[in-house]
């Protein structure tokens, strides 16, 4: 665990792996819920770091952190969120070529994977989902699309994501979902929050 | 709709509804948003009897004009500008009585960039995650003003504050930005850090509510390659591969992939809201 200073009121804690990031994040949320953390404004998990912002005394927490016993992440009791997908994305065959398999096999492998939300960002409601084994990680497209349709299910690097709204993007699009990822009138507004488990379920494509 | 409302007569270059923003949602990818010149926003609200958290308008360079449907008290702060009511001059930085049906016009900024217009009762649009702020990065909150749009006002809170003097920021002739190094200052050479602390930069015209971009000498990197996404605070100085620091303002993304060389404490950010393109910028290392 390597803490780095961020301005007057922040700490960026760098860890060796995504799993350790998630374990620390879960521990921070547990302690926050128990009232055992000093008041702070934001806890932002990311790929290898957790940002703590809005602390009155970052140095004080720093000294405490070193003594914490952080249990490894358990699967949790909450059921996985199921996202029905039509595997009709324009990059499905490119991904099949990268994975050296058929399009049907891409669908089978994607649906067989248990994902979970490592962190959010890019747009409200966009979760970076990890779970695909390393041989299935794919590069971003050479030329990003200027407009990726809302609900696109996409792959890039170690991540799978679902676009909560139409935006530019360079990820490989393999399918589409009607599931609403972000609705500010809903509580919680984001369907996918850090730590949420996710499964994709194939939906018949109308042809 | 009730009579407590105004219609937009002249939207200006970019006028948005802002309050103190929606902090605390960065883990969902939601930027903070909120008034860039927070002291000016709070002052405008205070002058019309509102709490500092009420929603008001933030203009950009060319001001805006609105027609009120009912008699309302309005105050304009931030970037100084000519204020008129139905064409007659009215004071800047003071409560102004605007009769029902009259047009309040906040003209182009004489210096600075952003004026803040508060209305007694505040702007009463639908809150999103507890805030009425327009967030231009992710599109939350009310759309930027367009001509003919009608915005509701809340009931006045109470009598307007009286003030015989208001703080006047004065023209921003040089933007001074004190910064604390880190978290990724180690990605830059000693020469790169020296360039940041001593170089002459200026505000780029590509600046917006997301970030104040700079033009100047590029900062030399000690490490190449990519940094995985990580959380970024308000005031982060992120350095993309072109070597020119971007100061992240209220609509900044919540994570980024380029190294943050330093962080400008929040209390120094209001002047950045008023620095027009071309304004000289100096970064001052705090330790």
Automatic annotation (TrEMBL), chain A:
<dbReference type="GO" id="GO:0005524">
    <property type="term" value="F:ATP binding"/>
</dbReference>
<keyword id="KW-0067">ATP-binding</keyword>
<dbReference type="InterPro" id="IPR029000">
    <property type="entry name" value="Cyclophilin-like_dom_sf"/>
</dbReference>
<dbReference type="Pfam" id="PF02682">
    <property type="entry name" value="CT_C_D"/>
</dbReference>
<dbReference type="InterPro" id="IPR010016">
    <property type="entry name" value="PxpB"/>
</dbReference>
<keyword id="KW-0547">Nucleotide-binding</keyword>
<keyword id="KW-0378">Hydrolase</keyword>
<feature type="domain" description="Carboxyltransferase">
    <location>
        <begin position="1"/>
        <end position="192"/>
    </location>
</feature>
<protein>
    <submittedName>
        <fullName>Allophanate hydrolase</fullName>
    </submittedName>
</protein>
<dbReference type="InterPro" id="IPR003833">
    <property type="entry name" value="CT_C_D"/>
</dbReference>
<dbReference type="GO" id="GO:0016787">
    <property type="term" value="F:hydrolase activity"/>
</dbReference>
From TrEMBL, chain B:
<keyword id="KW-0067">ATP-binding</keyword>
<dbReference type="GO" id="GO:0005524">
    <property type="term" value="F:ATP binding"/>
</dbReference>
<feature type="domain" description="Carboxyltransferase">
    <location>
        <begin position="27"/>
        <end position="287"/>
    </location>
</feature>
<dbReference type="GO" id="GO:0016787">
    <property type="term" value="F:hydrolase activity"/>
</dbReference>
<dbReference type="Pfam" id="PF02626">
    <property type="entry name" value="CT_A_B"/>
</dbReference>
<dbReference type="InterPro" id="IPR029000">
    <property type="entry name" value="Cyclophilin-like_dom_sf"/>
</dbReference>
<dbReference type="InterPro" id="IPR003778">
    <property type="entry name" value="CT_A_B"/>
</dbReference>
<keyword id="KW-0547">Nucleotide-binding</keyword>
<protein>
    <submittedName>
        <fullName>Allophanate hydrolase</fullName>
    </submittedName>
</protein>
<keyword id="KW-0378">Hydrolase</keyword>
<dbReference type="InterPro" id="IPR052708">
    <property type="entry name" value="PxpC"/>
</dbReference>
């Amino acid at each position: 665990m390597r803490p780095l200073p961020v301005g007057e009121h922040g700490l960026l804690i760098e860890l060796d792996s995504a799993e350790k990031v998630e374990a620390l994040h879960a521990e921070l949320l547990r302690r926050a819920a128990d009232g055992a953390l000093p008041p702070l404004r934001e806890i932002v998990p990311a790929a290898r770091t957790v940002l703590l912002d809005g602390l009155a005394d970052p140095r004080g927490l720093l000294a405490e952190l070193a003594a914490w016993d952080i249990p490894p992440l358990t699967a949790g009791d909450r059921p996985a969120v199921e996202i029905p997908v039509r595997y009709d994305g324009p990059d499905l065959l490119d991904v099949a070529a990268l994975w050296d398999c058929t399009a049907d096999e891409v669908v089978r492998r994607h649906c067989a994977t248990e994902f979970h939300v490592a962190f959010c960002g890019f747009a409200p409601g966009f979760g970076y989902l990890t779970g695909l084994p390393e041989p299935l990680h794919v590069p971003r497209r050479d030329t990003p699309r200027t407009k990726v349709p809302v609900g696109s299910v996409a792959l890039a690097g170690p991540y799978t994501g679902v676009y909560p709204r139409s935006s530019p993007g360079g990820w490989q699009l393999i399918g589409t979902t009607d599931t609403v990822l972000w609705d500010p009138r809903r509580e919680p507004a984001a369907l996918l929050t850090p730590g949420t488990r996710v499964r994709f379920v194939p939906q018949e494509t109308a042809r | 709709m009730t009579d407590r409302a105004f219609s937009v007569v002249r939207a200006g270059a970019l006028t948005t509804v802002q309050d103190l923003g929606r902090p605390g949602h960065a883990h969902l990818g939601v930027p903070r948003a909120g008034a860039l010149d927070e002291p000016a926003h709070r002052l405008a609200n205070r002058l019309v009897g509102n709490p500092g958290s009420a929603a008001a308008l933030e203009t950009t360079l060319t001001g805006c004009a609105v027609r009120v449907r009912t008699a309302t008290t309005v105050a304009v702060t931030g970037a100084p500008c000519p204020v008129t009511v139905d064409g007659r001059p009215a004071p800047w930085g003071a409560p102004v009585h605007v009769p029902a049906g009259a047009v309040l016009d906040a003209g182009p900024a004489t210096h600075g960039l952003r004026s803040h217009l508060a209305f007694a009762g505040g702007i009463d649009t639908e809150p999103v995650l507890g805030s009425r702020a327009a967030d231009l990065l992710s599109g939350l909150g009310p759309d930027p003003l367009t001509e003919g749009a009608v915005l509701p006002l809340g009931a006045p809170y109470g009598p307007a504050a009286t003030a015989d003097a208001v703080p006047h920021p004065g023209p921003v002739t040089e933007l001074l930005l004190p910064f604390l190094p880190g978290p990724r200052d180690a990605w830059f050479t000693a020469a790169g850090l020296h360039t940041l602390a001593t170089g002459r930069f200026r505000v780029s015209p590509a600046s917006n509510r997301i970030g104040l971009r700079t033009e100047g000498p590029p900062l030399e990197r000690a490490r190449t390659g990519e940094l995985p996404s990580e959380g970024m605070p308000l005031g982060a100085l992120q350095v993309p591969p072109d070597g020119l620091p971007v100061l992240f303002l209220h609509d900044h993304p919540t994570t980024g992939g380029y190294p943050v060389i330093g962080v400008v404490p929040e209390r120094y950010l209001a002047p950045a809201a008023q620095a027009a393109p071309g304004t000289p910028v100096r970064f001052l290392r705090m330790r």
